[in-house]
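User: I've been trying to design a sequence by hand for this structure and keep getting stuck. Would you show me what you'd pick, starting by listing the structure so we're on the same page?

Assistant: Good idea, let's start from the same input. This is the structure you sent:
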């Protein structure tokens, strides 16, 4: 146990030291080739660092934070883009926190219109713009500006309670069909990921004194794949992939095809990169040769999303399914394809077994504490009488 903790601490102390170096490089160099050559070795080191961590959960978290978030943010920083670049240079603690943790400062809550929405509606003047914004905010609850960056404690408590229920079911999984257990694992991964990222967000908010944006926006309420992937699921990754992958591909294809259609190959490219990064994380976790099922999962969703966007642009928003119908279809498609293509890799890497073991261990711990306290107070009261 001491060796595992030592490896984990060594990795993160090294990561912080490398980020201090990158912060100094940003002060000494301008954007472009020189900064790229100076920071590229750090990116390469981050890609292999998680392999030295022995425990599964710390290795998974470190892989996501360093290999994906930190490397992509540093690549944006090379060109003075992304959360690490600002008009006022970030202090060293803020630079380190924003580089390696899934946090993003909550922006001024002014309604904005995405490029995709501008293509769907012809905005000729300010009145049309205001009309479009009001329609978007009315039809899409996920876009309403919340007063707080993080959700209510009740929201997180209910999701944690669900994990506890799942833990009790896992102890009796012989009574359930394997597909039912696999379905619970899909929900378990979502809830656990949201709770973990929320904890880091709360810690960062307390330490840095800034309001942060939430990482998830109730994805089970998504009315379309575009709504699910673009506005509700793992929003930190979405905000990183857009400038690093989506925008460059869209800009490149805009030279040869109409701009409104250039977003389709950009969507496919973005989902391809997302799939490859997930493969890398799973390689770090399971240390097994990838079978590319996860990449196929994201390519399938990228292709489906591209078709959805194309259809929306052809019908120009004149028709759509009611949310009460669309939401179950979207979530059902995501869950079924995840069970088909995503979960086999999760099972091979034993993430499901780890999650089940940790949940059951926590339940046993709580039960033990409850029994101990109950015995103490009951015995104490009995002696009094």
């Amino acid at each position: 146990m001491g060796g595992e903790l030592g490896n984990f601490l060594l990795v993160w102390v090294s990561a912080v030291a490398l980020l201090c170096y990158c912060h100094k490089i940003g002060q000494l160099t301008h954007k472009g080739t020189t900064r790229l050559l100076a920071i590229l070795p750090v990116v390469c080191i981050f890609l292999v660092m998680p392999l030295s961590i022995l425990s599964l959960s710390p290795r998974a978290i470190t892989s996501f934070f360093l290999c994906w978030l930190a490397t992509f943010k540093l690549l944006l920083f090379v060109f003075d883009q992304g959360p690490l670049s600002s008009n006022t240079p970030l202090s060293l603690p803020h630079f380190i926190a924003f580089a390696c943790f899934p946090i993003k400062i909550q922006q001024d809550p002014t309604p904005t219109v995405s490029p995709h929405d501008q293509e769907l509606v012809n905005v000729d003047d300010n009145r049309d713009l205001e009309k479009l914004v009001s329609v978007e905010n009315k039809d899409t609850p996920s876009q309403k500006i919340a007063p707080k960056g993080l959700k209510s404690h009740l929201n997180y408590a209910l999701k944690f309670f669900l994990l506890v229920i799942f833990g009790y079911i896992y102890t009796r999984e012989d009574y359930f069909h394997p597909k039912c257990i696999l379905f619970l694992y899909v929900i378990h991964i979502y809830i656990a990921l949201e709770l973990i990222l929320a904890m880091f967000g709360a810690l960062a908010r307390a330490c840095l004194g800034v309001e942060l944006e939430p990482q998830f926006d109730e994805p089970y309420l998504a009315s379309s794949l575009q709504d699910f992937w673009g506005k509700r699921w793992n929003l930190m990754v979405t905000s990183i992939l857009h400038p690093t992958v989506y925008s460059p591909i869209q800009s490149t294809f805009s030279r040869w095809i109409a701009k409104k259609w250039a977003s389709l190959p950009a969507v496919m490219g973005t989902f391809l990169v997302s799939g490859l990064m997930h493969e890398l994380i799973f390689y770090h976790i399971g240390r097994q040769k990838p079978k590319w099922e996860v990449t196929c999962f994201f390519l399938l969703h990228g292709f489906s999303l591209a078709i959805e966007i194309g259809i929306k642009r052809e019908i120009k928003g004149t028709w759509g399914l009611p949310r009460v119908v669309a939401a179950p279809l979207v979530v059902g498609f995501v869950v079924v394809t995840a069970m088909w293509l995503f979960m086999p890799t999760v099972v091979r890497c034993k993430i499901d077994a780890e999650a089940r073991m940790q949940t059951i261990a926590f339940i046993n711990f709580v039960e033990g504490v409850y029994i101990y306290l109950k015995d103490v107070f009951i015995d104490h009261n009995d002696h009094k009488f």
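That's my pick for every position. To get oriented when you compare it with your attempt: The CA atoms of residues 69 and 237 lie 7 Å apart. Residues 109-148 have pLDDT under 50 and may be disordered.
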